[in-house]
């Protein structure tokens, strides 16, 4: 006998994560992991500590010149990171 209300396992997992409020932490870790994918290896080499807290991505830079360049492109970087993540997790970026 075939059941009529079958669902894909991926949609069930996403729903459980959302209900248990575990989805936010997962998406925040994606923001950190996708930093190199979105900005490239050259920028990733100039960063040495990346973490997210309360929607703010904190990035420590080794190059002040690159930091100033990224500050000018901050809005575009936020859009591209959120697009890669698939949700609006990153609200702001702080470069140090």
Describe this structure in words.
With 96 residues, the chain is α+β, with helices and mostly antiparallel strands. It has a single domain, classed as GMP Synthetase, Chain A, domain 3 (2-Layer Sandwich), CATH 3.30.300. The protein is built from 6 helices and 3 strands; from the N terminus they run ααααββααβ. The protein has helices at 9-19, 23-33, 35-39, 41-45, 64-72, 74-85, and strands at residues 47-53, 56-61, 92-95. The chain has a 3-stranded mixed beta sheet. Strand 1 and strand 2 (56-61) form a beta hairpin. The N and C termini lie far apart (61 Å). The model has no long low-confidence stretch (mean pLDDT 87).
Based on the model shown, name its key terms.
GMP Synthetase, Chain A, domain 3; single chain; 3-stranded mixed sheet; alpha+beta; 6 helices; 96 residues
Strand order of the largest sheet: 1-2-3
Quote the average pLDDT.
Answer: 87
Unreliable runs? none
Number of strands: 3
Shape: elongated
Order of helices and strands: HHHHEEHHE
Calculate the terminal CA-CA distance, rounded to whole Å: 61 Å
Annotation field: number of helices: 6
Q: Helical amount among residues, as a percent range?
A: 55-70%
**Name of the level-1 CATH class:** Alpha Beta
Structural domains: how many? 1
Q: What is the makeup of the main sheet?
A: 3 strands, mixed
CATH topology: GMP Synthetase, Chain A, domain 3
Strand composition percent: 15-25%
For the record, the CATH architecture stands as 2-Layer Sandwich
Q: Compute the gyration radius: what is it?
A: 17 Å
- Give me the secondary-structure category: alpha+beta
């Amino acid at each position: 006998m075939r059941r009529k209300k079958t669902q894909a396992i991926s949609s069930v997992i996403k729903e459980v994560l959302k209900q248990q409020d575990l989805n936010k932490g997962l998406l925040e870790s994606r923001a950190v992991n996708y930093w190199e994918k979105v900005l490239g290896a050259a920028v990733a080499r100039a960063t040495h500590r990346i973490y997210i807290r309360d929607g703010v991505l904190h990035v420590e830079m080794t190059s002040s010149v690159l930091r100033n360049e990224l500050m000018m492109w901050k809005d575009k970087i936020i859009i591209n990171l959120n697009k890669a993540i698939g949700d609006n997790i990153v609200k702001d970026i702080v470069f140090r």
